[in-house]
Amino acid sequence: MRQRHKPWADDFLQENSQLIVPNAMEHKGKWQQLFNNDHPIHVEVGTGKGQYIVGMAKQHPEINFIGIEIVKSIIVTAAQKALDAEVDNLLLLNVDAADLRDIFAENEIATIYLNFSDPWPKNRHEKRRLTYHTFLEQYKEILDPSGKVIFKTDNRGLFEYSLVSFNAFGMNLEEVNLDLHAIADPLNIMTEYEEKFSAKGQVIYRSRASF
Ligand code: SAM
User: Segment Interaction with RNA: which positions (predicted)?
Assistant: First the structure.
């Protein structure tokens, strides 16, 4: 994703620490306390500019959402959307998904969304794919036993790789959709990438899997 240099991003993060939570590891096992309720927690890994997680938070006030984004200048855009939407069931973390098990306790999360994750097509970068087995190990640990991993992408190669990776890990594939937009679904919240790629006529894939 292209990033514009935003020197004011640090100030913005500090001024909005009720939304973009600093020191995420301090809240391990205690995330529901920050939301002040016992609703289930859904996490989007690689939130980008936030259209999906903000849309989901508006659509599902009965769920707590946490968006994780590694790039500071991008999470600022997601945070601005969340502030504009005035949602109180969404938090954002400027962290690396490689640290998930330091941020969340075992069974703390109900659903993980992977939306248009970077494909890292070169074999030597396989370990960076968010559906590589080291990430799946973390998802398994932090998800409750009935938890789901829901994955959307336009990238056929990454989709096929991920289905094989889920299967090799012993996950149960509950949905494999090879053309998500073939049937209009008013409940499907589109991500920024999903809008961009589907406007170009690209097929959108979706899978749902559990451990
Ligand atoms: N999900 C958004 C969408 O569909 O429009 C953004 C997709 S973009 C291709 C992938 C996003 O994941 C980028 O914003 C990138 O910075 C973020 N990302 C990649 N690796 C990450 C990691 N290890 N931890 C957190 N975020 C990550």
Answer: 124-129
d(CA 70, CA 68): 7
Phi and psi at residue 144, to the nearest 5°: -70, 165
d(CA 131, CA 128): 8
Q: Complex ipTM, two decimals? A: 0.99
Catalytic residue list: 118
- Centre of ligand 1 to C-alpha 1, Å, is 8
CB 209, CB 162: distance < 8 Å: no
**Which of 47, 53, 73, 192 should be mutated for ligand 1, with most atoms under 8 A from CB?**
47
Query: pTM of this prediction?
Result: 0.96
Please write down the HEC assignment for all residues of 169-194.
Answer: CCCEEEEEECCHHHCCCCCCCCCHHH
Residue with the two structure tokens 């969304």? 113
The per-residue pLDDT for range 127-186, each reduced to its tens digit, is 999 999 999 999 999 999 999 999 999 999 999 999 999 999 999 999 999 999 999 999
Residue 73 alpha carbon to ligand 1 centre in Å = 12
Q: What is the side-by-side order of every strand in the sheet holding 41-45?
A: 90-93, 64-68, 41-45, 109-115, 143-153, 205-210, 172-177
